[in-house]
C-alpha cells in the first residue's frame, strides 16, 4: 500500500451481529480512513459489503445496455461486451461514446455502434493468446492403461488432445496496461472452459486438473494452481473467475483438493509449502474476519459466509453459506439481471435480489429451483437464506486436506487445529443436514431470515426435502459413506439412463432436470468408489459407463464435448438457463478422462448407446 499512501483507505466492516447495510453514506474518519455505513437503512434484508468495481467495467456495462437496444435480444450475449478491451485510454473512449448520434429514446443505431466498437475496442479473446502446453505429449506414456477397447482409446486420445485447444496465456498487453482490460494478468498459462468462457474459472479448474493428471500434464496442472494462489495473495480469496468483474464473489472452494491431488501424483512438497499459507487465508475468508484488498481499498469483512445454528439438543454449530459482496446487477449479465428485477418496484428489494443472483453465481449452480422460494420465479431467489450441504462438504474437505498437507511438511500445530475444525464440521453437518427418514443430507433454510440474528434454532421443517444431486455430495468425503445412503441414492430417482440428474424438477433452469453435470457425476462416483464397498463400486461404475457413453455419442454427433448433458437421452447435450449450450469443455473432458483412468473400458464393452 505504500505506493498508494496518498489515497484514502476504505474500510467496510460487516458482521452478522451488526446491522449496517452499506446502502448509502460515509463518514470521513482520522488517518484518511472512510468507514462505509448506511444513513437510511433499507427495510429489506440486504445487508453486507459491496466491493468496488473498476471504471472500465462500469463503462462496459453501459456499452452492454446500449448494444442490447441497438441489436435486440435475439442471439444477444451480455458477457461479450464486458470481455472487450480498450484500444485507447478510457476517458477518450467515453468521450467518443457520448458523441454517438442518438434517437429520441437515447438509443444508438447498430451501424454507428459497430463503427465505435471497431475503432475503440478490441474483439473478445484478443487479450488471451494460444499457449502450447509445455508437457503435452500426443500419447503420454502410461496413458489410461485400463482402457483395452481400441475405439475408446482413440476417442480418449482425441479428448486428451483438446487440452491443446483450450490452453491460453494472458497477452503481454494485459500486463502492460491492465486498466485497458477486464481480464486479470495471470503469470502462468491457463485452461479455459471453452466457448463464451474465455478466462479461468475457480471450481471448473478442479476437474480440469483431474483430467490433466490423467494426461500426465503435471506442470500445466501446477501452473493453474499457482495462478489461483496468486488471486488469494492479491484479493484474499479465489475469485469466481479471472476477470475484474468477478471480484465480488468466489466459487465452491476446491483449491485444497487441487493441491492434494497434484501432490499425490508428484510428491512435490514445494507446492505444499507455497500453497498452505494461501489455503489458510481462504479458510479464513469463508469462516472468520478477513481483509479484502480490492483495487487500492481494504475491506474488513466478518462473518458474511458464517452461520450459527442451535440444534435440537441445544448444541451450537457453525456452518457456511454463499454470500456475494455485491448488490447490483452482475456486470457479465447486467441486462438480464435488470430485466429480472424490473418486476420489483422497491429499490431495496432490487438490491436484495441482485445480491441473491450474485450469491447463486458464487454457488456455481446458477440457476436452480434449489435456491428459489417459487420454482417458477427467478426473482424469488433466496440463496443467502440457505445453508447448502455441498458447500459445507467442500469446506470440510478443505479442513481435512489442510490437515493432511500440514502433516506432510511437519506442521503438527496446523494439522491439529484443522483436524479439530473438521470434526466439529462433521458433527454440525450430521446435526443440521442429515435426514434419517430420507437417508440424505438436506439443505437447511434459515426461517424468518434476519442478517442481524446471531443464532438460528434448528427446525426439522426447515430442511429442503426436494431431491437434488447435492444431497449426496457428502459421499465424496469418505467419512460419510454408508449402506443407508447407497440405498437412498438408488431409490432417489436421480439415477437416469445417461447419468445422475441434477434435480427432479424440470424448471427450464440449467441446474435442474433433465441436465446432468460432470462435477456431480464425478463427486458421487468417486465417493462410492472410496467407500471400498463392492456394491457401491458396481453402482459407481454403472454411472460412469453411462456418462462416458453419452459424452462419446454426443462427441461423434457434434464433434464437441459439451458443458452439460441431458441424462434422459444418451448422446444428447443439455440446455436451459441464461445462455446457449457451450462446448469445449474443460470439466467434461477432465471427468471423462478421470473415469476412464479409474474404471478403464473392456475390449468387449460396446461404446454406443443401448
From TrEMBL:
In terms of superkingdom, the source organism counts as Eukaryota
Keyword Hydrolase assigned to the entry: answer is: yes
- Which transformation does this protein catalyse, written as a reaction? alpha,alpha-trehalose + H2O = alpha-D-glucose + beta-D-glucose
- Work out whether the entry's keyword set contains rRNA-binding: no
Provide a GO biological process annotation.
trehalose catabolic process
Enzyme Commission identifier(s): 3.2.1.28
Keywords from the named record: Glycosidase, Hydrolase
Which GO-annotated molecular functions does the record name?
alpha,alpha-trehalase activity
Pfam family name, one: Trehalase
Q: Gene3D superfamilies under this entry?
A: 1.50.10.10
> Which family does the UniProt entry place this protein in?
Belongs to the glycosyl hydrolase 37 family.
- Full protein name: Trehalase
Species annotation: Olea europaea subsp. europaea
Amino acid at each position: 500500500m505504500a505506493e498508494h499512501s496518498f489515497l484514502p483507505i476504505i474500510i467496510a466492516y460487516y458482521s452478522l451481529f451488526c446491522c449496517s447495510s452499506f446502502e448509502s453514506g460515509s463518514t470521513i474518519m482520522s488517518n484518511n480512513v472512510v468507514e462505509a455505513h448506511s444513513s437510511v437503512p433499507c427495510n429489506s434484508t440486504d445487508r453486507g459489503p459491496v466491493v468496488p468495481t473498476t471504471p472500465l467495467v462500469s463503462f462496459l456495462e453501459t456499452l452492454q445496455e446500449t448494444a442490447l437496444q441497438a441489436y435486440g435480444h435475439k442471439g444477444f450475449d451480455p458477457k461479450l461486451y464486458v470481455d472487450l478491451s480498450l484500444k485507447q485510454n478510457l476517458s477518450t473512449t467515453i468521450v467518443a461514446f457520448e458523441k454517438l448520434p442518438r434517437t429520441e429514446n437515447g438509443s444508438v443505431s447498430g451501424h454507428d455502434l459497430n463503427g465505435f466498437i471497431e475503432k475503440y475496442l478490441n474483439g473478445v479473446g484478443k487479450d488471451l493468446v494460444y499457449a502450447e502446453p509445455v508437457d503435452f505429449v500426443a500419447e503420454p506414456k502410461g496413458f489410461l492403461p485400463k482402457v483395452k477397447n481400441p475405439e475408446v482409446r482413440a476417442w480418449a486420445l482425441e479428448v486428451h488432445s483438446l487440452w491443446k485447444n483450450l490452453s491460453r496465456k494472458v497477452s503481454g498487453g494485459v500486463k502492460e496496461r491492465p486498466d485497458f482490460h477486464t481480464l486479470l494478468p495471470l503469470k502462468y498459462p491457463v485452461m479455459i472452459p471453452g466457448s463464451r468462457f474465455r478466462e479461468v474459472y475457480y471450481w471448473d479448474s478442479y476437474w480440469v486438473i483431474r483430467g490433466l493428471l490423467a494426461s500426465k500434464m503435471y506442470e500445466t496442472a501446477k501452473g493453474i494452481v499457482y495462478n489461483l494462489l496468486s488471486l488469494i495473495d492479491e484479493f484474499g480469496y479465489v475469485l469466481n473467475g479471472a476477470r475484474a468483474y468477478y471480484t465480488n464473489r468466489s466459487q465452491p472452494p476446491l483449491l485444497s483438493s487441487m493441491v492434494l491431488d497434484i501432490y499425490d501424483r508428484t510428491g512435490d512438497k514445494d507446492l505444499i509449502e507455497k500453497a498452505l499459507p494461501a489455503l489458510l487465508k481462504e479458510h479464513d475468508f469463508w469462516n472468520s474476519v478477513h481483509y479484502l484488498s480490492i483495487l487500492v481499498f481494504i475491506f474488513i469483512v466478518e462473518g458474511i459466509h458464517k452461520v450459527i445454528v442451535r440444534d435440537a439438543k441445544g448444541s451450537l454449530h457453525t456452518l457456511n453459506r454463499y454470500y456475494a459482496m455485491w448488490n447490483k446487477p452482475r456486470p457479465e449479465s447486467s441486462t438480464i439481471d435488470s430485466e429480472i428485477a424490473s418486476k420489483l418496484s422497491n429499490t431495496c428489494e432490487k438490491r436484495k435480489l441482485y445480491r441473491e443472483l450474485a450469491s447463486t453465481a458464487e454457488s456455481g449452480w446458477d440457476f436452480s429451483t434449489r435456491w428459489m422460494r417459487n420454482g417458477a420465479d427467478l426473482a424469488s431467489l433466496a440463496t443467502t437464506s440457505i445453508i447448502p450441504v455441498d458447500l459445507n462438504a467442500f469446506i470440510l474437505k478443505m479442513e481435512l486436506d489442510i490437515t493432511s498437507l500440514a502433516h506432510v511438511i511437519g506442521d503438527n500445530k496446523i494439522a491439529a487445529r484443522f483436524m479439530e475444525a473438521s470434526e466439529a464440521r462433521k458433527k454440525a453437518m450430521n446435526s443440521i443436514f442429515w435426514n434419517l427418514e430420507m437417508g440424505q443430507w438436506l439443505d437447511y433454510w434459515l426461517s424468518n431470515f434476519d442478517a442481524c440474528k446471531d443464532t438460528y434454532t434448528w427446525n426439522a421443517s426447515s430442511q429442503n426435502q426436494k431431491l437434488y444431486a447435492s444431497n449426496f455430495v457428502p459421499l465424496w468425503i469418505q467419512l460419510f459413506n454408508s449402506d443407508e445412503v447407497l440405498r437412498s441414492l438408488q431409490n432417489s430417482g436421480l439415477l437416469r439412463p445417461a447419468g445422475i440428474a441434477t434435480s427432479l424438477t424440470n424448471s427450464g433452469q440449467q441446474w435442474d432436470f433433465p441436465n446432468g453435470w460432470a462435477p456431480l457425476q464425478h463427486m458421487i462416483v468417486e465417493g462410492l468408489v472410496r467407500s471400498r464397498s463392492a456394491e457401491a463400486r458396481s453402482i459407481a461404475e454403472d454411472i460412469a459407463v453411462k456418462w462416458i457413453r453419452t459424452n462419446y455419442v454426443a462427441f461423434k454427433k457434434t464433434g464437441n464435448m459439451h458443458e452439460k448433458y441431458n441424462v434422459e437421452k444418451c448422446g444428447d447435450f443439455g440446455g436451459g438457463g441464461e445462455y446457449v449450450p457451450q462446448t469445449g469443455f474443460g470439466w467434461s473432458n477432465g471427468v471423462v478422462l478421470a473415469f476412464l483412468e479409474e474404471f478403464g473400458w473392456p475390449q468387449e464393452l460396446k461404446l454406443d448407446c443401448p
